[in-house]
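Continued from yesterday's entry.
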Amino acid sequence: MLMRTDPFRDLDRFAQQVFGAGTWSKPAAMPMDAYRAGDEFVVCFDLPGVDPGAVELDVERNVLTVKAERRPLPTGDDVRMHVSERRLGVFSRQLFLGDTLDTEHITANYDAGVLTVRIPIVEKAKPRRIEIDGAGDRREIKA
């Protein structure tokens, strides 16, 4: 079952506001969508305000790691912050990929604050038709 809401999310947000993002806190998760489109698996990560040079994408065995850093705005003597709600620092997310995905041919694109990762599905995992010979009849079924 997919849990669409996290009952502790508001408590976590409150704790972050009160105690701040210290070194003891875990990196913030980045929102994502994941879906299959034809012969590839697509994952989209929201990273608004993150410079493309501050995004890292690594694969080790079957684990895809996305790490991004949103850096603070330039400051100076004439700058006074009135509201600061956007989280700064390192954001990280790990996905465990199944054996049906081709980790050797992953591609990524970053556009308008969205990192799109495309992972091809291996040939052996794609659906195929298998012929069945019967008593005088030849039928095809989809495996």
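--- second protein ---
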Amino acid sequence: MPEGPSLVILRELVEELKLEGKEILKVTGNTKIAKERMLYQKVVGFKTWGKHFLICFDGFALRIHLMMFGSYRINDRKDVEPRIGFEFKNAELNFYTCSLEFIEGDLNKVYDWQVDIMSDDWDTKATIKKLKAEPESLVCDVLLNQQLFAGSGNIIKNEVLYRTELHPLNKISSLPAAKLKALVVNARAYAFDFLEWKRAYVLKKHWLIYGKKLCPKKHEVHKEELGKNKRITFFCPICQKRYKVKTSV
């Protein structure tokens, strides 16, 4: 599943086409949504929130979620019919194996930009406060919670937990204040590292734990399905500390 930084790259690539203010001349695809409403509409802009790519029009937007196996083509197409495709005067966008939904009205009333790890409006203090309100949640789960870390996915989760030396089964309530802050700060910091490495086509070279058999310190890496959604998690039980749950007297 493409994570937030990958969606930012998609937005940047599309913005290079200078389609803002341009009219859609043809809409194709096997989607069942009312795609005809976008025909001859002018694009107001493109936005991303977490793992959502948003094509904005006057009064509404199309939300595109690439899910686990989604993909796109710019000025190109696959041999199969897209889920949704757009043709402009001098450009073409095609999206495959994705979820589509119209969002009506003001996006600011739908999306909380403060929880988007790639957004200029990201709020570290607000996120820490929200985490403290979920003391029983596991750190491996909160990093995948899009209402807390929009755009964070399994790669970011694994890498951030290793970098902050946190065992994935730690509960929020067990973390020292400094570690809780480090978790939040590193989630955003790593997302921007991810973005730069992805742009340079060297992302995998920088993985410390994800997909590895040994951690950088040559300890055996464990691979388990953890958390409420049983997502694959790579971790080092030696480097990543599991804190004792705090008990009240």
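The mean pLDDT is 95. The chain has two domains: 4-109, 113-235. Will compare against the first tomorrow.
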